[in-house]
Amino acid sequence: MVAQGFIVDLNKPLVFQVGHLEESYEEWVHQPIVSKEGPRFFESDFWEFLTLTVWWAIPVIWLPVVCCCISMSVRMGHTLPEIVLMVIFGVFLWTLIEYTLHRFLFHIKTKSYWGNTIHYLIHGCHHKHPMDGLRLVFPPAATAVLCFPFWNLVKVFATPSTTPALFGGGLLGYVMYDVTHYYLHHGQPSSDVPKNLKFCWTNLMMFFPRNCLQGCHR
Fold first, then answer.
1. Taking the model in full, what pTM does it have?
2. Which pLDDT tens digit goes with each residue over 183-196?
3. Where are the domains of the chain?
4. Distance of alpha carbon 102 from alpha carbon 10, whole angstroms
5. Cα separation of 116 and 106, whole Å?
6. How far from 132 is each of 70, 78, 117, 126, 156, CA to CA, in Å?
């Protein structure tokens, strides 16, 4: 038990410090440090490495998996229009899951040691260090672990031949989301549409920094 008034040392690994903030964690995590250089999370180089991801790793790693999954359903006899509908439904399913996670998990208020620690790892770090370029996208190792329950979720309501395409669509939705999210933070748009999108996003974040739009911001 650490005495009340604990102060986080930003020069030391953060993950196992933030839990000691107890009730003060909610206020601390919503006071952003705007810097492209993120903090160290773990003392261990191995665990630290797993938290760092360049944005282009997401499409490079997961788009081949998307194509593989979709091709499985094609080989099982589904037509192109059927595949398109399944992929679109998969993207919709991912959007629903992503919103639900943000609404009911990523923005939950915690004050216990492990509650604060886990929240900081899965989402709080993004509030505290919103411009950390190596932690804006989800680490592939963590995504790989979460793919198993997502696949099993799809299997609950899908047939063996439609499950791969639906799963591939969901994974495609995730890739689209993560790279778009990175672009909105670090992109330098030259045309009007992305410029307006980034302008609107930035201004919304200025007006709603604590709630992060309750499910629109990762």
1. 0.82
2. 887 766 666 655 55
3. 18-214
4. 26
5. 11
6. 33, 42, 18, 8, 37
What is the sign, positive or negative, of the torsion defined by CA atoms of 118, 123, 129, 132? positive
pLDDT confidence of residue 4: 61
- Give the whole-angstrom CA distance, residue 190 versus residue 194: 8
